[in-house]
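Researcher: Next sequence.
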Amino acid sequence: MMSAKIAVVIPSYKVTKHILGVIESIGPEVGRVYVVDDCCPDASGKFVQENCSDPRVVVLRNEVNQGVGGAVMAGYRAAMADGMDIMVKLDGDGQMDARLIPDFVAPIMRGEADYTKGNRFFNLEEIRAMPKVRLFGNAVLSFMTKLSSGYWNLFDPTNGYTAIHREVARHLPMEKISTRFFFETDLLFRLNTLRAVVVDVPMDAKYGDEVSNLKIGKIVGEFFVKHVRNFSKRIFYNYYLRDMSLASIELPLGCLLILFGSLFGIYNWVEAADVGSTTSAGTVMLSALPIIIGLQLVLAFVGHDISAVPSRPFHRVRGNSALGLKDSEK
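Model: Next structure:
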Protein backbone atom coordinates (compact mmCIF):
# COMPACT_ATOMS: atom_id res chain seq x y z
CA MET A 1 0.00 0.00 0.00
CA MET A 2 2.82 2.38 0.81
CA SER A 3 4.20 2.77 -2.72
CA ALA A 4 3.04 6.40 -2.91
CA LYS A 5 5.16 9.30 -1.75
CA ILE A 6 3.53 10.44 1.48
CA ALA A 7 4.32 13.71 3.20
CA VAL A 8 3.23 15.04 6.57
CA VAL A 9 2.62 18.77 7.06
CA ILE A 10 2.83 20.06 10.65
CA PRO A 11 1.75 23.68 11.29
CA SER A 12 3.95 24.85 14.13
CA TYR A 13 2.86 27.61 16.48
CA LYS A 14 3.60 27.45 20.22
CA VAL A 15 3.99 23.65 20.18
CA THR A 16 7.66 23.23 21.14
CA LYS A 17 6.57 21.17 24.16
CA HIS A 18 5.02 18.45 21.97
CA ILE A 19 6.40 18.66 18.45
CA LEU A 20 9.49 16.47 18.87
CA GLY A 21 7.31 13.67 20.20
CA VAL A 22 4.94 14.10 17.27
CA ILE A 23 7.78 13.81 14.76
CA GLU A 24 9.18 10.74 16.53
CA SER A 25 5.79 9.02 16.33
CA ILE A 26 5.58 9.31 12.53
CA GLY A 27 6.14 5.91 10.91
CA PRO A 28 8.47 4.89 8.06
CA GLU A 29 5.64 5.02 5.52
CA VAL A 30 6.11 8.80 5.44
CA GLY A 31 8.87 10.07 3.16
CA ARG A 32 8.97 13.75 4.10
CA VAL A 33 7.89 15.81 7.11
CA TYR A 34 7.34 19.54 6.65
CA VAL A 35 7.38 21.56 9.85
CA VAL A 36 5.94 24.99 9.06
CA ASP A 37 7.04 27.66 11.54
CA ASP A 38 4.15 30.11 11.26
CA CYS A 39 6.11 33.07 12.63
CA CYS A 40 6.07 31.30 15.99
CA PRO A 41 7.16 33.46 18.99
CA ASP A 42 8.88 30.38 20.42
CA ALA A 43 10.97 29.96 17.25
CA SER A 44 9.67 26.42 16.81
CA GLY A 45 11.41 26.02 13.45
CA LYS A 46 14.80 26.71 14.95
CA PHE A 47 13.93 24.48 17.91
CA VAL A 48 13.20 21.54 15.59
CA GLN A 49 16.35 22.10 13.56
CA GLU A 50 18.50 22.11 16.70
CA ASN A 51 16.87 19.15 18.43
CA CYS A 52 15.62 16.82 15.69
CA SER A 53 17.95 14.61 13.65
CA ASP A 54 15.27 12.94 11.51
CA PRO A 55 16.52 13.29 7.88
CA ARG A 56 12.93 13.44 6.61
CA VAL A 57 12.26 16.76 8.34
CA VAL A 58 12.20 19.98 6.33
CA VAL A 59 11.60 23.26 8.19
CA LEU A 60 9.64 25.99 6.40
CA ARG A 61 9.06 29.49 7.74
CA ASN A 62 6.29 32.01 7.18
CA GLU A 63 7.64 35.52 7.62
CA VAL A 64 4.21 36.68 8.80
CA ASN A 65 1.75 34.66 10.88
CA GLN A 66 -0.86 33.33 8.45
CA GLY A 67 -2.86 31.04 10.71
CA VAL A 68 -3.21 27.28 10.46
CA GLY A 69 -4.54 27.47 6.90
CA GLY A 70 -1.65 29.56 5.66
CA ALA A 71 0.83 27.20 7.30
CA VAL A 72 -0.84 24.09 5.84
CA MET A 73 -0.94 25.53 2.33
CA ALA A 74 2.73 26.49 2.57
CA GLY A 75 3.40 22.85 3.38
CA TYR A 76 1.20 21.69 0.49
CA ARG A 77 3.11 23.85 -1.97
CA ALA A 78 6.47 22.55 -0.78
CA ALA A 79 5.29 18.93 -0.88
CA MET A 80 3.92 19.26 -4.41
CA ALA A 81 7.15 20.91 -5.54
CA ASP A 82 9.05 17.93 -4.13
CA GLY A 83 6.83 15.44 -5.98
CA MET A 84 4.87 14.11 -3.02
CA ASP A 85 1.68 12.20 -3.89
CA ILE A 86 -0.39 12.51 -0.70
CA MET A 87 -0.12 15.17 2.01
CA VAL A 88 -1.27 14.45 5.55
CA LYS A 89 -1.90 17.36 7.89
CA LEU A 90 -0.94 16.62 11.49
CA ASP A 91 -1.09 19.08 14.39
CA GLY A 92 2.02 19.63 16.46
CA ASP A 93 0.29 19.57 19.85
CA GLY A 94 0.18 15.80 20.22
CA GLN A 95 -3.61 15.44 19.94
CA MET A 96 -3.45 13.40 16.72
CA ASP A 97 -2.23 9.81 16.69
CA ALA A 98 0.37 9.44 13.93
CA ARG A 99 -0.29 5.69 13.88
CA LEU A 100 -3.53 6.47 12.04
CA ILE A 101 -1.73 7.93 9.01
CA PRO A 102 -2.14 4.68 6.98
CA ASP A 103 -5.89 4.78 7.71
CA PHE A 104 -6.14 8.30 6.29
CA VAL A 105 -4.02 7.50 3.25
CA ALA A 106 -5.58 4.15 2.32
CA PRO A 107 -8.91 5.41 0.82
CA ILE A 108 -7.00 7.85 -1.39
CA MET A 109 -4.56 5.20 -2.57
CA ARG A 110 -7.40 2.81 -3.36
CA GLY A 111 -8.99 5.47 -5.54
CA GLU A 112 -12.03 5.78 -3.26
CA ALA A 113 -11.44 9.34 -2.05
CA ASP A 114 -9.64 12.57 -2.86
CA TYR A 115 -9.58 13.90 0.70
CA THR A 116 -9.97 12.22 4.07
CA LYS A 117 -10.63 13.81 7.44
CA GLY A 118 -10.94 12.63 11.02
CA ASN A 119 -14.24 12.12 12.81
CA ARG A 120 -14.17 11.88 16.60
CA PHE A 121 -17.87 10.96 16.86
CA PHE A 122 -17.84 7.33 15.69
CA ASN A 123 -17.10 5.87 19.12
CA LEU A 124 -19.82 7.05 21.50
CA GLU A 125 -17.85 5.93 24.55
CA GLU A 126 -14.73 7.87 23.60
CA ILE A 127 -16.50 11.19 22.96
CA ARG A 128 -17.32 11.39 26.66
CA ALA A 129 -13.78 12.74 27.00
CA MET A 130 -14.70 15.69 24.81
CA PRO A 131 -15.61 18.88 26.75
CA LYS A 132 -19.38 19.47 26.63
CA VAL A 133 -18.97 22.95 25.12
CA ARG A 134 -16.92 21.53 22.25
CA LEU A 135 -19.42 18.70 21.81
CA PHE A 136 -22.36 21.08 21.43
CA GLY A 137 -20.41 23.54 19.30
CA ASN A 138 -19.23 20.77 17.00
CA ALA A 139 -22.79 19.53 16.48
CA VAL A 140 -23.96 23.01 15.49
CA LEU A 141 -20.96 23.64 13.24
CA SER A 142 -21.40 20.21 11.62
CA PHE A 143 -24.97 21.00 10.57
CA MET A 144 -23.97 24.43 9.25
CA THR A 145 -21.10 22.85 7.33
CA LYS A 146 -23.38 20.25 5.75
CA LEU A 147 -25.50 23.10 4.37
CA SER A 148 -22.64 25.28 3.17
CA SER A 149 -20.29 22.60 1.83
CA GLY A 150 -22.81 20.09 0.46
CA TYR A 151 -21.08 17.15 2.17
CA TRP A 152 -24.11 15.80 4.02
CA ASN A 153 -22.26 12.55 4.78
CA LEU A 154 -19.61 14.21 6.97
CA PHE A 155 -19.41 15.19 10.62
CA ASP A 156 -16.85 16.90 12.87
CA PRO A 157 -15.98 19.61 10.29
CA THR A 158 -13.34 21.38 12.40
CA ASN A 159 -11.25 18.22 12.73
CA GLY A 160 -7.82 19.07 11.37
CA TYR A 161 -6.47 15.54 10.88
CA THR A 162 -6.66 15.30 7.09
CA ALA A 163 -5.04 13.84 3.98
CA ILE A 164 -5.30 15.07 0.40
CA HIS A 165 -4.30 13.84 -3.04
CA ARG A 166 -1.76 15.99 -4.87
CA GLU A 167 -3.95 16.39 -7.95
CA VAL A 168 -6.78 17.82 -5.86
CA ALA A 169 -4.52 20.17 -3.91
CA ARG A 170 -3.06 21.42 -7.19
CA HIS A 171 -6.51 22.59 -8.35
CA LEU A 172 -7.50 24.34 -5.13
CA PRO A 173 -7.67 28.17 -5.25
CA MET A 174 -5.30 28.47 -2.28
CA GLU A 175 -5.24 32.25 -2.41
CA LYS A 176 -9.01 32.33 -1.74
CA ILE A 177 -9.23 29.81 1.11
CA SER A 178 -9.65 31.16 4.65
CA THR A 179 -6.36 30.83 6.48
CA ARG A 180 -7.39 30.82 10.13
CA PHE A 181 -10.02 28.96 12.19
CA PHE A 182 -12.44 28.65 9.25
CA PHE A 183 -9.79 26.90 7.15
CA GLU A 184 -11.01 23.28 7.41
CA THR A 185 -14.62 24.28 6.78
CA ASP A 186 -13.84 26.59 3.87
CA LEU A 187 -11.63 23.90 2.36
CA LEU A 188 -14.61 21.53 2.28
CA PHE A 189 -16.60 24.13 0.33
CA ARG A 190 -13.73 24.49 -2.16
CA LEU A 191 -13.47 20.71 -2.49
CA ASN A 192 -17.17 20.51 -3.32
CA THR A 193 -16.75 23.02 -6.14
CA LEU A 194 -14.22 20.54 -7.59
CA ARG A 195 -16.69 17.67 -6.97
CA ALA A 196 -14.00 15.93 -4.91
CA VAL A 197 -14.90 12.86 -2.84
CA VAL A 198 -14.38 13.34 0.90
CA VAL A 199 -14.44 10.46 3.39
CA ASP A 200 -14.55 10.49 7.20
CA VAL A 201 -11.99 8.38 9.08
CA PRO A 202 -12.93 7.28 12.62
CA MET A 203 -10.57 8.44 15.35
CA ASP A 204 -10.71 8.87 19.11
CA ALA A 205 -10.99 12.23 20.84
CA LYS A 206 -7.76 13.08 22.64
CA TYR A 207 -7.10 16.05 24.89
CA GLY A 208 -3.97 16.88 26.80
CA ASP A 209 -2.79 19.96 28.69
CA GLU A 210 -2.84 22.23 25.63
CA VAL A 211 -5.12 25.28 25.54
CA SER A 212 -7.33 25.80 22.50
CA ASN A 213 -7.17 29.21 20.84
CA LEU A 214 -10.65 28.71 19.41
CA LYS A 215 -13.20 30.75 21.39
CA ILE A 216 -16.73 29.75 20.38
CA GLY A 217 -18.29 33.04 21.50
CA LYS A 218 -15.92 35.09 19.36
CA ILE A 219 -16.19 33.11 16.15
CA VAL A 220 -19.86 32.08 16.01
CA GLY A 221 -20.93 35.28 14.24
CA GLU A 222 -18.03 35.20 11.81
CA PHE A 223 -18.62 31.52 11.05
CA PHE A 224 -22.34 32.12 10.45
CA VAL A 225 -21.66 34.86 7.90
CA LYS A 226 -19.07 32.74 6.09
CA HIS A 227 -21.36 29.71 6.04
CA VAL A 228 -24.16 31.80 4.48
CA ARG A 229 -21.68 33.13 1.90
CA ASN A 230 -20.42 29.64 1.00
CA PHE A 231 -23.94 28.20 0.86
CA SER A 232 -25.04 30.93 -1.55
CA LYS A 233 -22.00 30.40 -3.75
CA ARG A 234 -22.39 26.63 -3.78
CA ILE A 235 -26.06 26.79 -4.76
CA PHE A 236 -25.30 29.24 -7.56
CA TYR A 237 -22.32 27.21 -8.85
CA ASN A 238 -23.96 23.78 -8.70
CA TYR A 239 -27.58 24.52 -9.55
CA TYR A 240 -27.48 27.49 -11.92
CA LEU A 241 -24.00 28.02 -13.36
CA ARG A 242 -22.84 24.45 -14.02
CA ASP A 243 -26.16 22.71 -14.41
CA MET A 244 -29.89 23.17 -14.00
CA SER A 245 -32.40 20.60 -12.80
CA LEU A 246 -35.78 20.37 -11.11
CA ALA A 247 -34.02 21.21 -7.84
CA SER A 248 -33.02 24.58 -9.36
CA ILE A 249 -36.72 25.46 -9.45
CA GLU A 250 -37.78 23.81 -6.20
CA LEU A 251 -35.60 25.93 -3.91
CA PRO A 252 -36.51 29.46 -5.08
CA LEU A 253 -40.18 28.58 -5.65
CA GLY A 254 -40.42 26.94 -2.25
CA CYS A 255 -38.83 29.93 -0.51
CA LEU A 256 -41.14 32.36 -2.32
CA LEU A 257 -44.25 30.37 -1.36
CA ILE A 258 -43.17 30.20 2.29
CA LEU A 259 -42.45 33.93 2.30
CA PHE A 260 -45.77 34.78 0.62
CA GLY A 261 -47.80 32.56 2.94
CA SER A 262 -46.09 33.96 6.03
CA LEU A 263 -46.49 37.61 5.03
CA PHE A 264 -50.09 37.08 3.89
CA GLY A 265 -50.96 35.37 7.17
CA ILE A 266 -49.27 38.00 9.33
CA TYR A 267 -50.93 40.85 7.42
CA ASN A 268 -54.42 39.37 7.78
CA TRP A 269 -53.86 38.45 11.43
CA VAL A 270 -52.79 42.03 12.27
CA GLU A 271 -55.70 43.48 10.27
CA ALA A 272 -58.20 41.22 12.03
CA ALA A 273 -56.73 42.04 15.44
CA ASP A 274 -57.08 45.78 14.76
CA VAL A 275 -60.82 45.53 14.10
CA GLY A 276 -61.40 42.86 16.76
CA SER A 277 -62.68 40.24 14.34
CA THR A 278 -61.76 36.59 13.73
CA THR A 279 -59.82 35.60 10.64
CA SER A 280 -61.92 33.44 8.33
CA ALA A 281 -61.08 29.79 7.63
CA GLY A 282 -60.58 30.61 3.95
CA THR A 283 -57.99 33.26 4.77
CA VAL A 284 -56.17 30.85 7.08
CA MET A 285 -56.05 28.26 4.31
CA LEU A 286 -54.79 30.83 1.79
CA SER A 287 -51.95 31.50 4.18
CA ALA A 288 -51.22 27.91 5.24
CA LEU A 289 -51.37 26.25 1.81
CA PRO A 290 -48.42 28.19 0.24
CA ILE A 291 -46.35 27.55 3.38
CA ILE A 292 -47.07 23.80 3.27
CA ILE A 293 -46.35 23.51 -0.43
CA GLY A 294 -43.26 25.70 -0.11
CA LEU A 295 -41.92 23.57 2.74
CA GLN A 296 -42.43 20.42 0.68
CA LEU A 297 -40.52 21.96 -2.23
CA VAL A 298 -37.62 23.01 0.03
CA LEU A 299 -37.48 19.52 1.56
CA ALA A 300 -37.48 18.02 -1.94
CA PHE A 301 -34.52 20.25 -2.78
CA VAL A 302 -32.67 19.16 0.37
CA GLY A 303 -33.31 15.52 -0.57
CA HIS A 304 -31.84 16.13 -4.01
CA ASP A 305 -28.86 17.98 -2.51
CA ILE A 306 -28.14 15.10 -0.13
CA SER A 307 -28.23 12.59 -2.99
CA ALA A 308 -25.86 14.80 -5.01
CA VAL A 309 -22.87 14.37 -2.67
CA PRO A 310 -19.79 13.77 -4.91
CA SER A 311 -19.12 10.05 -5.36
CA ARG A 312 -16.53 9.83 -8.15
CA PRO A 313 -12.98 10.79 -7.06
CA PHE A 314 -11.68 13.92 -8.75
CA HIS A 315 -8.16 12.60 -9.27
CA ARG A 316 -9.48 9.59 -11.18
CA VAL A 317 -11.80 11.73 -13.29
CA ARG A 318 -8.76 13.79 -14.25
CA GLY A 319 -7.21 10.65 -15.72
CA ASN A 320 -4.81 9.84 -12.89
CA SER A 321 -4.62 6.17 -11.93
CA ALA A 322 -5.15 5.32 -8.27
CA LEU A 323 -1.82 5.46 -6.46
CA GLY A 324 -0.24 2.13 -5.70
CA LEU A 325 -2.68 0.10 -7.85
CA LYS A 326 -2.06 -1.67 -11.11
CA ASP A 327 -4.32 -0.90 -14.07
CA SER A 328 -5.96 -4.30 -13.74
CA GLU A 329 -6.89 -3.49 -10.14
CA LYS A 330 -8.75 -0.26 -10.88
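Model: The two ends are 14 Å apart (CA to CA). Residues 6-239 form a domain with the Spore Coat Polysaccharide Biosynthesis Protein SpsA; Chain A fold (CATH 3.90.550.10).
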